[in-house]
Amino acid sequence: MSRRDQRFRRGTKGRCCECGCILSHWYYEKEGQLYCKKHYWARYGEHCHGCRDTIATGVIMVAGEQKYHPECFTCMSCEMFIGDGDSYTLVERTKLYCGHCFCPGEVSAARSASSLTKRPHTVALVSLPPHAGRGLSVATDLSQETGPLVTVTGLDSSTLSPELLSSVHMGDRVLEVNGIPVLNISPDEINCVIQDTNRPLQLTIEHNPQSPDDPPLSNDAPGQRQLS
């Protein structure tokens, strides 16, 4: 899906391969097929995880792999809008909570309703204020073909708030640092940002339950770098 698929037609008119409407001026072309705007976006556009409609233009709110219209990015508990940079937790890819409404009880309820005995899948944006110590350490695995894998390897319960400890766990994956995907940040830069306690820190964290056969995380695994 790209604006490069958009074309302007002069002279001979074509028809949309989906609805057959005449394409007199602007149209879209993909894999040799012509589309009107409506059916191009319906087939190739992003779809909002909230309302299920196509996201054709404008800002997209992202929580893990799920995308939303800004007006659909709302807490299912208080129904307030969750703005860009506001803390949130997405439970089991469907239940979205703002930072004020999410609590460990929500996770317990989701766990009891699931066939899994572990904590459910969550994606959370958490904020760590400027502090004498972060209370959190991560490791970067550089051996992954898809890019660096950044995981949480240490949590200090005496430093972190109960709210943070309910959202972040050992082995969780860090997806973004201050809104920037870890794929676009060098391991050294990640280290510097986390160690800079003079500035607030925001992390997008994914908890993805592992199968019982998965090996435990090792701090000494090849290609990993310890960051704290």
UniProtKB/TrEMBL annotation:
<keyword id="KW-0440">LIM domain</keyword>
<feature type="domain" description="LIM zinc-binding">
    <location>
        <begin position="46"/>
        <end position="108"/>
    </location>
</feature>
<keyword id="KW-0371">Homeobox</keyword>
<dbReference type="Pfam" id="PF00412">
    <property type="entry name" value="LIM"/>
</dbReference>
<feature type="region of interest" description="Disordered">
    <location>
        <begin position="204"/>
        <end position="228"/>
    </location>
</feature>
<keyword id="KW-0539">Nucleus</keyword>
<keyword id="KW-0479">Metal-binding</keyword>
<dbReference type="InterPro" id="IPR001781">
    <property type="entry name" value="Znf_LIM"/>
</dbReference>
<dbReference type="GO" id="GO:0030182">
    <property type="term" value="P:neuron differentiation"/>
</dbReference>
<dbReference type="GO" id="GO:0000977">
    <property type="term" value="F:RNA polymerase II transcription regulatory region sequence-specific DNA binding"/>
</dbReference>
<dbReference type="GO" id="GO:0005634">
    <property type="term" value="C:nucleus"/>
</dbReference>
<keyword id="KW-0238">DNA-binding</keyword>
<dbReference type="InterPro" id="IPR050453">
    <property type="entry name" value="LIM_Homeobox_TF"/>
</dbReference>
<dbReference type="InterPro" id="IPR036034">
    <property type="entry name" value="PDZ_sf"/>
</dbReference>
<feature type="domain" description="PDZ">
    <location>
        <begin position="122"/>
        <end position="209"/>
    </location>
</feature>
<dbReference type="GO" id="GO:0046872">
    <property type="term" value="F:metal ion binding"/>
</dbReference>
<dbReference type="Pfam" id="PF00595">
    <property type="entry name" value="PDZ"/>
</dbReference>
<dbReference type="GO" id="GO:0000981">
    <property type="term" value="F:DNA-binding transcription factor activity, RNA polymerase II-specific"/>
</dbReference>
<keyword id="KW-0862">Zinc</keyword>
<protein>
    <recommendedName>
        <fullName>LIM domain kinase 1</fullName>
    </recommendedName>
</protein>
<dbReference type="InterPro" id="IPR001478">
    <property type="entry name" value="PDZ"/>
</dbReference>
